[in-house]
Amino acid sequence: MKNNIIIIYLFIPYYLFAQNNVYPGADEKSLSRAQYFTWINNTNEGATEEQTLINLEFFEWLNKEYGMRLDIYALDAGIYDGKNFYGAATDARHKRNFPNGFSPIYEKAKQNGIRLGIWGGPDGFGDTPEEAAPRKELMVALCRDYDWALFKLDAVCGPLRKDKEDDFIDMMEQCRVYSPDLILLNHRLGLDKAKPHATTFLWEGREAYIDVNSRNSTTAIHNRVGNMERGLVPDLKRLTEDHGVCLSSCLDYWEDHLILQAFSRSLILSPQIYGNPWLLSDNEFPKLARIYNLHRKFS
Questions:
Q1: Which Gene3D superfamilies does the record match to this protein (predicted)?
Q2: I need a surface site. Which of 21, 26, 121, 158 has the fewest CB within 10 A?
C-alpha cells in the first residue's frame, strides 16, 4: 500500500505537466507552410464551391506547369461566420454557397497535397452548454472529417467572452485530436487562459492590404514600401503572423514584398499570399512559383 502511494505521488508532477503542456500546432522549429487565403477574392459574402474549385484548378496548374506546391488553402470570411455574426452549416446562405458540403473542395485539394483552412470568430458558444455543443461540433468536424489545417480566428467577428474560454479550450483540444498540427491564428482576440492554444499572434495587429491597411508613410518608389519598411518581426519569432502579401488591385513590385516575407522573415506561414494571384501576367507566374519552390527547398 505504501509503495502504491509513493508511485501515485511520483506521477502527480508528470500528470500536472501533461495537463498544462499545450502544443499549439507548431513551434519555432517547425517547417514553414506555404499558404494562400481568399480575402478580397471573396469578402463577407463568402466563397462558393464553384469559385473554390476554380481557384484550386489554378494552383493545380501552377503545380503541373512549374512545380509550385501549396500546403494550405484558407477560406476567408463568410464561410460560416462574418463581420459581427456567427453562422452554422445549417444556414441557408452556407447551403447555397456549398450545396455539397466541403467534400468536393476537400477532395480537389487533397489530390494536390493541399489542406484547407477557415476564417471565423472565437465564440459562438451561446449561453448554455447545450448551445455550445453544436458550435464545438461544427469546428471539430472540420478536423475529423476534412483534415483541417488552419483556423484564422478574428475579433472582427466578435470577442471571446471571458466565461467562454473553457469552451474554447475544450473545442481546440478536441480539434487537435484529429489535426495535431492545426494552426490557430490569433487575430486580436485578447485571449487569457486560452492563449497557449494559439499558434501565432498578428504582428502589431496590422493587416497587409496595400493602400488600405498598409500605406506608405513617406515618398517611395512603389506603394509596398510602407509594408516592407516594417522589416523583421520581433526577436525573429517565426510564430508571428505578418498577414502575407496582397495580390489584387496593387500588383507592382509584389516580388520584393514576397521575398522579404518568405526568406527574410521565414515565418510559420511562408510564403503567404492572398487576393487574386491569377491577375499576375503570364511571365510572372514562373517567378511566383520560383519563390515558392526555393523556399520549400532551402528553408
A1: Aldolase class I
A2: 21
Q: How many domains does the chain have?
A: 1
Q: Is the pLDDT of residue 5 over 90?
A: no
Find, among 47, 62, 25, 81, the residue nearest to 296 by Cα. Answer: 62
Is 19 among the domain residues? Answer: no
The bridge status of strand 150-154 relative to strand 115-120 is: parallel
Q: What is the pTM of this model?
A: 0.92
pLDDT (tens digit per residue) in 228-287: 888 899 999 999 999 999 998 779 999 999 999 999 999 999 999 999 999 999 999 999
Residue-range definition of the domain harbouring residue 83: 34-298
> What is the length of the chain?
299
Q: Kindly provide the residue ranges of all beta strands, DSSP E only, lying in 42-149, ordered along the sequence.
A: 72-75, 115-120
Residue 285's CATH number: 3.20.20.70
Is 157 part of a structural domain of the chain?
Answer: yes
* 136 part of a folded domain: yes
